[in-house]
Amino acid sequence: MQAWINPACSKCSAALEALDAEGIEVEQRRYLEQAPTAAELNDVLQRLRLEPWDITRLTEQTAVELGMARWPRDRNRWIAALAEHPILIQRPILLLDDGTAVLGRTEQDLRIAVSAQHSRSDARPRFRHKSVDPTREHLHTSEFDDFVDGLDYPMFIVTTASDGQQAGCLVGFTSQVSIDPPRMLVCLSVRNHTYRVAKHADMLAVHVLGPDQRDLAELFGETSGDDVDKFARCSWRPGPRNVPLLEDCPRRIVGRVLSRDSFGDHVGFLLEPTGIEVNSTGASLSYQQVDELQAGHPA
Ligand SMILES: Cc1cc2nc3c(=O)[nH]c(=O)nc-3n(C[C@H](O)[C@H](O)[C@H](O)COP(=O)(O)O)c2cc1C
After folding, report:
1. Which of 116, 125, 191, 195 gives 297 a disulfide partner, CB atoms 3.0 to 4.6 angstroms apart?
2. Separation of 225 CA from ligand 1 center, angstroms?
3. 193 lines ligand 1 (CB under 6 A)
C-alpha cells in the first residue's frame, strides 16, 4: 500500500509502526515535499469516500488565515487550496491495494486497513455470500464445507497403544465436552492406523502443540503408522498402558476411553481424564496454520 505521511506527525509514525508490526509493506509518500495535484486529490477523495473539507486541517495557521472554516462547500475551491497548501491535508492517508483508502488516525481505522490489506495479500478468493434454504432436508458436503471454511481451532496429537502396537496422529476434531465431570471427545477417522489401534485401547493421550511445532504436526499428520514408525522420529516416553507421551509438547491430558460412537467417517472416543501435564499455557498451533498439510490418510 501507499501511505501519504508527514514524518513529523506522531499519528503517521504510529500508523507506520502498526502496519510494520503486521508485516505490511508500505511505500511512503511525503506529501509535503511531493505535493499531490488536484486530480490526485480528487481520486483519493473518491477512494476515501470523503469530501475535501472532511480531510482539511482547519486548525492549521494557513487555514485560519484563509478563513476556510467559513468557506462555502465548493469542492473545486477546497481541492485547489489543499493542492496549493498540502500542510492542510489530514494524515496519514492509506491507499490500500484493493483500491479503497482509509484515514489511518484511530486504532479502529488501522484495524480496517490491516484486515483489508491482509485479505488482499492472502490472495484468497473474495468472500461471497452463501446460503441454503433451511427448509431443505439436508446439506451436501460442499455446502457444509462452505460453513466450516475459515474456522479455526487448536490442533492436537492423539496417541494410544494396544496389543503391543503404538499409534498417533494429528487431530483437529477434539474438544472438551463437559466441565463436571471433566470429559474430552476425540474423533478419529476410521481410515487411520491410529483408529485401528485405538479401537482396542483403554487409554488415549491428547497433546497440545506449540505454535512452533509444525515439524511434529507434519510427522503425525502427513505420515501414517501404516508405513512409518513415527515414534522412532520423535522423543517420547511410555505412559499408562504403554501410551506414548510426547516429551516436547507443552501440555497433555491422558484419559480412559468411556465409549466409542460412530459419527460418520470419524468415530468419537469419549475420554474420562485421569492425568495432565502442563508445562506452558501459551498459544497453541491452530488449524489455520496447518490446513494445507496433506493428511497421511485422507478422511
Ligand atoms: C490439518 C489436519 C487435521 C486433521 N484432523 C484429523 C482428525 O480430526 N481426526 C483424524 O482422525 N485425523 C485427522 N487428520 C488426519 C491424520 O492426522 C492423518 O491422516 C495421519 O497421517 C494419520 O496417521 P495414522 O494412519 O498413523 O493414524 C488431520 C490431518 C490434518 C493435516
Report:
1. 191
2. 11
3. yes
Instruction: Give the span between the Cα atoms of 227 and 222, in whole angstroms.
Output: 11
Q: Which of 178, 166, 171, 191 is nearest to 259 (CA)?
A: 178
pLDDT value, residue 132: 87
Closest CA to 30 of 100, 92, 105: 92
pLDDT of residue 47: 93
**Sequence-separated (6 or more) residues with CB below 8 Å from residue 265:** 189, 190, 191, 299
End-to-end CA distance of the chain: 41
Same domain as 262, residue 179: yes
Q: Is the CB of 63 under 6 A from ligand 1?
A: no
What is the rounded CA–CA span in Å between residue 133 and residue 131? Answer: 7
In the prediction, which pLDDT does 123 show? 45
| Cβ of residue 189 lying under 6 Å from some atom of ligand 1 | yes
pTM of the model: 0.64
112 and 160 housed in the same domain = no
59 lies in some domain: yes
Q: What pLDDT is stored for residue 127 in this prediction?
A: 58
Number of structural domains (the chain) is: 2
Stretches where the chain sits below pLDDT 70 are: 120-128
Give the three cell numbers for residue 28: 511512503
Question: What CATH code is carried by the domain that includes residue 18?
Answer: 3.40.30.10
Q: Which residues does residue 204 pair with via DSSP β-bridges, in sequence order?
A: 160, 255
Distance (Å) from CA 123 to ligand 1 centroid: 26
For residue 119, what pLDDT is reported? 76
What is d(CA 171, CA 198) in angstroms, rounded to the nearest whole number? 14
9 is catalytic: yes
Domain that holds residue 24: 2-121
